[in-house]
Amino acid sequence: MKNEYKPEPMDTKDVELGKELEELIEKMAKNVHEVWAQTRMNQGWVYGKERNDALKQHPCLVAYEELSESEKEYDRNTALETLKLICKLGFKISRE
To answer: pLDDT grade, residue 1 (50/70/90)?
Structure first.
């Protein structure tokens, strides 16, 4: 059966976030990684120098601070796009 799924994320190109949210984006990125790592570990995955699905080993099962910049950027993008979507949907983000 052919997979015809085509992802269509909401277009958030027109949403600009202020500099004041940079700290929030970084904290969210770290949490995204922590949730991912916890989920993997709960599934029996462990750290390994190379990804090995059969042995459930993954090189990113380390603290966020130990990730490569490209891996951190992946998590930052998830956080950034989540915040942009929140704004696009009409919600306001503010610190109390």
So the answer is: low
CATH for 42: 1.10.490.160
Model confidence, pTM: 0.89
Q: Is residue 1 part of a domain?
A: no
Strands (E), 1-96: 46-47, 57-58
Q: What is the pLDDT of residues 35-70, one digit of tens each?
A: 999 999 999 999 999 999 999 999 999 999 999 999
Grouping H, G, I as helix, E, B as strand and the rest as coil, residue 88 is: helix
Q: Look up the domain containing 71 and give its range.
A: 19-88
In a domain, 66, yes or no: yes
Q: What is the DSSP string of 68-86?
A: -HHHHHHHHHHHHHHHHHH
Task: Please state whether beta strands 57-58 and 46-47 pair in parallel, antiparallel, or not at all (unpaired).
Answer: parallel
